[in-house]
From TrEMBL:
Segments forming domain Aminotransferase-like plant mobile: 58-311
InterPro entries from the UniProt entry: AminoTfrase-like_pln_mobile, MAIN-like
Domain of life: Eukaryota
An annotated GO BP: meristem maintenance
Name of protein: Aminotransferase-like plant mobile domain-containing protein
Amino acid sequence: MDPGPIDDSMLTLQAVHRSTRVWNGPEPGILTIRRNSAALHRMVPLDERIVGHLQEAGFYCTARIGFISIDWHLITALVERWRPETHTFHFPVGEMTITLQDVQIILGLPVDGLPITGRVEQDYEALCLTQPGFPFPENNMTGGRIQIRQLSRWFPNLPNNANEVEVQRYARAYILQLLGGTLFANKSNNLVHITYLQFLEDFKPAGQYSWGSATLAHLYRQLCLASDIDGAEIAGPVILLQLWAWDRLSFLAPIMESVLRDDIIQNEELFPPPPFGHMWRHVLETTGTSMHVLTKYREMIDMQAPDEVRHIHNYFFHLVLMSTSSRQMRIYSFQVIFNDYR
């Protein structure tokens, strides 16, 4: 049997795609996941004093998701279905991909705004000096990158009597760990580029950048690299890929049988609501779904049915109000998102 593609005019990279080894051998094995979010969420609790700064910068919702274990076998099975020619997953029911809307709903990152661009090579010592009290890690840098664990040691917990300068410095360190360990994780597994500080000098302008677009672009890039026939690892925001798969491909998702109280914060009712991806923090057991078995995931995807795909529908409404006193008309537009299974 010929595994395809039937028409190679579009899928021109089949000869160097990971799926070729799945079909012809030797078995490529499980991809190694490169990230360092455990250190952030286990060593650095979310202090309520930095919540305002995280909200302004656009990272509060992502911080609320916390640490979720990654299923290496599931990620590997999805990468085998990823096509770098089209930037889509090729499933039996058709093509699917992760969109900016998914990034916004699942992670809560802003997807509108300025692009994340800037100089990578610059005077790092001067850059650190622009952040009051932020140490210059001269002996702990590798090509402009600093160890994430070093940040955890420098900023373990925020003192009870911390002033506003210390609170802001702590918030910047927290965001750096979030960027380097989760959103823009690289294959070093423990380094974050200090150049991100140039976007965090002021939290409110930082929130005007499209962090969600940069996150999605980084994930696309990592998926393309990992889908290569010699690919052995994947970095980037793999948590987005896993939560997207759990939501859109329900037959791959664990079964939530118990609920835990949020351990990221205290007095949860006093905080703004978390993003959609937060719900998966409450998974305690996965009975009923075979997890962490690559061959099982391949079989489940091969047997995928159209009604096992979750669709999102957008409806736009316009509300027209007429003021009886000023005789002025005002039109309000809003969007409602519905999820369903077809």
